[in-house]
Amino acid sequence: MKLSKTATEELQLLRDAYGVEALSRAQVFGRHMRFVLGRVSVEDDTRSGWPLSSQNEDNVVHIRDMIREDRTVTVRMLADNMHLNKSTCHQILREDLGKQKLNARLVLHALTQDQKEVRASVYADLLHKVQNDAAFVNSIVAEDE
Question: Which residues contact 84 (CB under 8 A, 6 or more apart)?
Fold first, then answer.
């Protein structure tokens, strides 16, 4: 230890500095022992075991492919197929793939390039009709749902 303090002295220093928010006696003594034995880092050690989340790149890619194959797929169908929780599938769909719920189906926030081209074509046709036939505008009936 750089300060050459005992664990008891370190505990008292921490309690003076942090009061009731200080580490417990057991924590201070345990950390003191690790540093006396040669530890130089205050970072946590890596741990083996299960990953923290199933929201990984492999699952994102697999769900993206499933949606491309069948746009009517539901979250429950995705979860069952992938052996994931529904909440994990929701997170992947919303956060990673940018989808939102619409009529019990998840769809893109933005249009695809094909959809944009179809809309541009329809708008161009309507504009052409308006320019060639002034009465066409009067034949349009607008409704609000």
Answer: 54, 59, 78
* HSE-CB for 41 with a 13 A CA cutoff: 4
Banded model confidence at residue 107, pLDDT cuts 50, 70, 90: low
CA distance 84 to 56: 12
pTM: 0.39
Q: Which amino acid is at 90?
A: H
Pick the CATH number of 57-108 from 2.40.50, 1.10.3470, 1.25.40, 1.10.10: 1.10.10
Residues 91 and 1: their CA atoms lie apart, in Å, by 45
Q: Cα–Cα distance between 140 and 60 in angstroms, integer?
A: 44
Would you say how long the chain is, in residues? 145
